[in-house]
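Intended use. Records like the one below are meant for learning the mapping from a protein sequence to its folded structure. Do not use them to infer anything beyond what is encoded.
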Amino acid sequence: MKKLRKNTEIAALAVRVIGDGTEQLGLMPIEKALQLAQERGADLVEVSPKSKPPVCKLMDYGKYLYKLKKQDQHQKKMTKNTEVKGVRIGISTGDHDLDVKRRQAAGFLSENHLVKVVMIFKGRQLMHKELGKEKMLEFAESLKELSDIDSYPKHSGFQTIMVLKPKLNLHT
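Structure written out for the chain above:
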C-alpha cells in the first residue's frame, strides 16, 4: 500500500479540496483546508500529490486504510496459485519414456499447473534443433485434450523450452 500524506504532512501552500463524497469544495490555502477538515471531524488526505495544485480529500483516514487492507486481502484470496512444473525430454528419448513423461505432464496439467518442457541437446545433437522442435510439438499435440501451448518452442544455448498451459475447464 502506498503511504498518503495527511493533515500537517502536506507540504503545498494551496490545495484543491474534495468533500466526503464527490463534491468539489474548490481551491483554498492549506490552513483553511485543515480548518475545514477539523470542523467536519475528518482528515485532509492528499490523493493526487503530482497535480498542480495537489488534490486533497476530506475522509476518515483510518476507515480508508481499513478498506484498502480488506480489498488487498480479498485480492490475495482470489488469486490462484499456479506452479510451473518441469518435464525434461531428449532428442533421442524412446517412445516408452515419452509415454511416462506424457503421463507425468498430464498429471501436472490436471492439477492446473503450467508445464515447462525442456529438451537438452548434447554434442552433435545441437546440429538438429529442428528435429527437437518437431518432437516437442508432437509431445504438445499428444496432450492437446488437456493443454494449449502457452509459449512455442524457443531455443537458447543448449536447450529448447516450451510451456504448456492447462485448458480452461468450463464444466467446473
